[in-house]
Amino acid sequence: MTSSLQTPDPNPGWLSEFALAETRTRVPILYVEAVPVRVDTSGQIEHIGVLLRTSPATGEITRTLVSGRVLHNESLRDALQRNIVKDLGPAAFPRLPATLVPVTVAEYFPFPGMTPLHDPRQHAVALVYVVPVTGECNPRQDALELTWLTPEEALSSSLLNDMEGGRGLLLKQALAWSGAIV
């Protein structure tokens, strides 16, 4: 959900840094988050992609998921596609779900304790999806690396606790939803 991409984005319909900062103090910001996965021929998850990046909110190195804002007049499908390409590269070849019903809806607050999810910059709502990718993934923008983990490795407490803003909870929910864990 956090990104070091500066605004205005190359997309001219976006907000200036000042306007975005002002908006963040007044209304929740809508995000999409994706758990990139590699699946076998029967559709079972074999690996989960987790990004390593420097948090723009805290400056710390953390693990996170693919995430980004939904732009004004942008469909959820387009936002999901754009943010996956932004974080994983144009050759990731995501297979977006046929329906855009999210795995879960995440709500982040700027102060800790209201929910397990925290973003010190803003109140935000994120629609979370599990998205198979079939192509070559190369981290882009502010991501330092992409690590592919088995479901068992992804559930290690050290990894889950290292995930930015409480996203370890979202990863566990996504894996449970997909049947990768019981």
UniProtKB/TrEMBL annotation:
Q: What SUPFAM superfamilies does the record tag this protein with?
A: Nudix
Q: Taxonomically, which superkingdom?
A: Bacteria
Q: What is this protein called?
A: Uncharacterized protein DUF4916
Q: What organism does the UniProt record list as the source?
A: Kribbella pratensis
Output the lineage of the source organism. Answer: Bacteria, Bacillati, Actinomycetota, Actinomycetes, Propionibacteriales
